[in-house]
Amino acid sequence: MMSAISAGSDEIAATPGAFRQRWDVFLSFRGSDTREGITKGLYEALEARGVRVFMDDVALERGEEIQRGLMEGIEDSAAFIVVLSENYASSHWCLEELAMICETRKLVIPVFYRVDPRDVRHQSGPFKTNFELHERKYGESVVQSWKKAFKKIGGLSGWPVNHTQVCP
Fold first, then answer.
1. Candidates 61, 97, 132, 140; catalytic one
2. pLDDT for 163
3. Phi, psi values for residue 150, rounded to 5°
4. For 11-52, how does the pLDDT look when each residue is reduced to its tens digit (9 = 90+)?
5. How far apart are CA 163 and CA 100, in angstroms?
6. Rounded CA separation 12/74 (Å)
7. Is 97 a catalytic residue?
8. Mind listing the domains of the chain with CATH numbers?
9. Which residue in 100, 122, 92, 98 sits closest to 110, CA to CA?
10. Cross-strand bridge partners of residue 12
């Protein structure tokens, strides 16, 4: 099926997949917390259903600059699944990623893995100390953008997961 848009004598033809992004879903997660558990299960379940998933250790090419590769992955993804775990905020990489994800205005689905969405929203509980440490190291203005992203993601309807099984 082909569609055309006419503007006077100019005609633009496009196939349905012409504007498709490289990745359907970008997985954001704290590797040491969830890579071998829930995140791996999500990745495998989505891939088995034909979803093109960006996961850092699979999608990044060897020798590629990690930060640039992650940023390109974010830009070229249609939606995001953010697995928020107890140590997610300990990583400035995760927080940078989350801030960029929140700026895209694309679909974001949070998975609250063994954390309370209220603690995410208010940067309390297991996240409070991490934000205080980051503020001392990176400064208040940098951390404010991370807090804003955390507040936004904590305010989204998502899935609380309090066990390790993801998909049968």
1. 97
2. 66
3. -65, -40
4. 433 334 546 788 999 999 998 888 889 999 999 999 999 999
5. 28
6. 28
7. yes
8. 23-159 (3.40.50.10140)
9. 98
10. 5
